[in-house]
Design brief:
The relative contact order is 0.19. The chain is an all-alpha fold. It has one domain. The protein has nine helices and no strands. The two termini are about 10 Å apart. The chain is globular, with a radius of gyration of 14 Å.
């Protein structure tokens, strides 16, 4: 932030590739609401701590990625189809960050409408990136909703 098992996440972090751009485009499409967030994110919520670290690595662009999130998933075929539908968006990561300020209420409504798993995810996600939480909230206004 998406869809998992802790073992799958370990394989994601062990993956060796230079495919970070594809992952950025995937997250970009998700957050710009080109695909229902619920369908895309729900499976990720089973391991909030690992999810937070995954988001951190993707947003900062320092984590090499193998394939899309294939190594991350238990239901790889189904999720691969989900991600493949998002990968045509070639906007820059800068435009992605700009777009976040356009849709925060949509994302806020999604998180407000969901379960304890979402709340646990929000707690782990909030301000836990490299550096101060204030910096990240200034850079990405959407984080203030988490």
């Amino acid at each position: 932030m998406l869809f998992i098992v802790p073992m799958g996440i370990k394989r994601y972090f062990d993956a060796d590739s230079q495919d970070a751009t594809q992952i950025k485009r995937t997250f970009q499409a998700v957050f710009i609401m080109q695909m229902p967030v619920e369908r895309t994110f729900n499976p990720l919520l089973s391991d909030a701590g690992q999810v937070k670290r995954t988001f951190q690595a993707v947003f900062i662009g320092q984590m090499p990625v193998k394939g899309t999130f294939k190594a991350l998933l238990t239901d790889a075929k189904r999720i691969k189809r989900t991600f493949n539908s998002l990968l045509s968006d070639t906007k820059s990561i800068k435009r992605y960050f700009d777009a976040l300020s356009i849709v925060p209420m949509e994302i806020k409504r999604y998180f407000d409408a969901n379960s304890q798993d979402i709340k646990r995810f929000k707690r782990n996600f909030r301000g836990q990136f490299i550096g101060s939480s204030a910096f990240w909230m200034q850079k990405w206004p959407i984080l203030r909703f988490f």
